[in-house]
Design a protein that fits this description.
Elements lengths: L1 H39 L16
C-alpha cells in the first residue's frame, strides 16, 4: 500500500511540475513577443534619434 501511495504522490508532483514549467514557457514567450514589439515600435525623440522604450 505504501509503495502505491509513493508512486501516486510522485506522479502528482511530476504532473504539477510539468504544468508549472509549461505555463512558465508560455509566459516567457509572451514577454519575448512584447519585448520585440516594443523594440520595433520605439519612438524617436526630438532629435530624430530612436530612444529607449523601457525605463531601466
Amino acid at each position: 500500500m505504501v509503495p502505491l501511495l509513493l508512486v501516486l504522490l510522485l506522479a502528482l508532483i511530476l504532473f504539477g511540475a510539468g504544468f508549472a514549467l509549461k505555463a512558465l514557457w508560455w509566459i516567457a514567450m509572451i514577454v519575448l513577443v512584447l519585448w520585440l514589439l516594443g523594440f520595433v515600435a520605439r519612438s524617436a525623440d526630438s532629435t530624430g534619434r530612436k530612444g529607449r522604450w523601457y525605463r531601466w
